[in-house]
Amino acid sequence: MDTVFIEGLEVDTVIGAYDWERSIRQCLRLDLQMGWDNRLAAAGDELAHALDYASVSQRIQAFAADSQFQLVETFAERLVALLMAEFQIPWVRLKLHKPGAVPAASSVGVEIERGCR
């Protein structure tokens, strides 16, 4: 299993459990690793057989724009489930950063891994 990755993708969304967070958009930073077999794409040099990270990134940004979750855990679970279903990705590891949530930390967040490698 090969890995296609996206690092440092920034998205704006409504996220947070506190009342003041429900009225603003906040930046999340995402690092993704996605399992994919790159051999077919490489053999024919065809994007149609690759996991198109530009399309995945656009879908993530659209998901974030439409989302309004309280918990980063919920955002992460729903996003990974959507990506696996829409792009037929067998394995995903997502590290989600919520910078600024804890002033003394450079970032906080969650990391999840779903599917089989």
From TrEMBL:
GO terms for cellular component: cytoplasm
One MF annotation (Gene Ontology) recorded for this entry: isomerase activity
Matches recorded under SMART domains: FolB (SM00905)
Keyword rRNA-binding among record annotations: no
Pathway listed: Cofactor biosynthesis; tetrahydrofolate biosynthesis; 2-amino-4-hydroxy-6-hydroxymethyl-7,8-dihydropteridine diphosphate from 7,8-dihydroneopterin triphosphate: step 3/4
Enzyme class, spelled out: lyase
UniProt xrefs under Pfam families: FolB (PF02152)
Keyword line: Folate biosynthesis, Isomerase, Lyase
Domain of life: Bacteria
NCBIfam families: folB, folB_dom
Family affiliation: Belongs to the DHNA family.
Name the UniProt record assigns to this protein: 7,8-dihydroneopterin aldolase
